[in-house]
Amino acid sequence: MIQVEHLTKRYGPVTAVSDVSFNVDKGRIVGFLGPNGAGKSTTMKILSCFMPASGGSARVAGFDVFSQSLEVRRRIGYLPENAPLYTDLPVGTYLEFVAEIKGVGRRERRAKVDEVMERCFITDMRRRLIGKLSKGYRQRVGLAQALLGDPEVLILDEPTIGLDPKQIAEIRSLIRSLAGQHTVILSTHILPEVSMVCDGVIIINRGRIVAQGTQTELVEQVFPTARIEVEIGGPRDAVLAALRAVPGVLRVDDLAGADSTARFLVESPRGRDVRAEVVQLVSARGWRLLELHQVGMSLEEVFIRVVAGEDTEAREEA
Amino acid sequence: MRWLPVFKKEMRLYFGSPVAYAFLALFLIISGWMFSQIFLIYSELSMRAFMQPMGPQSLNPTENVMRPLFSNMSVVLLFFIPMLTMRLFAEEKRAGTIELLLTYPVRDGEVLLGKFLAAGAVYLLLLVLTLTYPALMAAFGRIEWGAVLTGYVGLILLGATFLAVGVFVSSLTENQIVAGSATFGVLLAFWLIGWGADAAGGRLRTLLQYLSIIEHMDGFGKGVIDTKDVVYYLTVTAFALFLTLRALDAKRWKG
After folding, report:
1. Between A50, A51, A89, which is nearest B12 by CB?
2. What is the predicted pLDDT for the residue at B219?
3. Are B8 and A103 a contacting pair at CB < 8 A?
4. Whole-model pTM?
5. What is the predicted pLDDT for the residue at A177?
6. Residue B103 and residue A49: Cβ atoms within 8 Å?
7. What residue numbers bound the domain in which B90 lies?
8. Across the interface, do A89 and B13 touch by the CB < 8 Å criterion?
9. What are the structural domains, with CATH classification, of chain A?
10. What is the tally of structural domains in chain B?
11. Nearest Cβ partner of B6 from A73, A85, A101?
12. What mean pLDDT do residues A308-318 have?
């Protein structure tokens, strides 16, 4: 549904996006993840036909965003960063304007506006001036205007920013409910959001894609080994040597610990569980097992590893 | 055509805020004052002319009241039109709403047309309201409606030109105040350029006179429609609108 190939965008001497390529299949929800200034918004502005790329190409629903911009714009709903809206218009009037400009027929216009207002929980705000709304409501009006006209593709730049936790949950389930009929690409820097809402993840840093795939794929890519953390009461050196000797263990890192105990990070190949062997070892030697747990590989750790790794490399190059 | 939603939205913004009311009310107060003063001077003149047997038999009221009124109104419009146009693009750019507007399935030209016509509609409403002045004269005397009509054709053309220049300047900045004052500056410069014509001679004089934006209004006030004047106003209007389209395009490229 969305095909991006070698996309590059330069603002004068600054390269905001460099050689970015990805695909999003129909009906999928993809999260665009990256630190501030990574190029998320720029990519979205190009996909929404607001500005052209300096190089490469992007196609939405089979149409080129540059040469067939009108066709693309008929098929997308866009929510720019910070939801810029006409503050002097009432919500209802504004949404009717959007429905009309998107070509929703006169007869169904009212019904469509009612529908998106209901979906975004803003029905009772119809007569309120947009300028008088709180940030959360404004964000939802922005989402409502993106949904008008039933676009195949939704491009949402930080859709949950400025919302309170309850609203965030509501908007997330709303976005989740779009999967299937709509293709959604959303940017965020809230990591749990991606885990909850998205099917796929694209991590972007300094204008380049550093990792992409489903969440499990990313975790496996970045952390190829399974890890457990143990704390053992016993002589540190002896414990370390014994752990290294356990069959299946690839690597043991000393994490230090309190004086009389030792903490270690034990890595083994994915799918090879060494916990039982470690427990057995400890009891056989008469040490005390104080703690043992698997280290969960969350997206957050993937993100930090990938982005931080990149930044160190960049620093070393410079 | 998708210009209609944009037009409707702009009209709501004009009449949902004090802008349109302030524009109409202030202009009518000022032009009403001018009309009454010109009319008083005229009545005194015609009284004196009536008492002098050797003087002209009668002073034409259309020529002596409406023509100066048209020319005074043209100058006042120079100050007032920027009020209508300064918001049009500058505010969209400042608030970021232009990002949504330009990603809806409409052409830039349709957006521009909607905005230009909305400002034009408010201006036309103003002109309709100023018809009070010739109507008052008609109630108390004879008036040549042909000449009045011609004058209004001139005001429409002049207004379109001012509006187009205003819209263009508004598309260049994010700041309404800058847009308003720069529009005023540009229009004023195009008016003052004509002053140089008096001092200059020969070809330069003709050129300066031709460039002067209000100079072309004079013929219409006399009841004459000169192709040269019509072409001038239409050309400047079209050129300013064309430049606006280029500016919108450039904005995209620069991001």
Report:
1. A89
2. 87
3. no
4. 0.87
5. 87
6. yes
7. 3-254
8. yes
9. 2-217 (3.40.50.300), 224-294 (3.30.70.3190)
10. 1
11. A101
12. 67
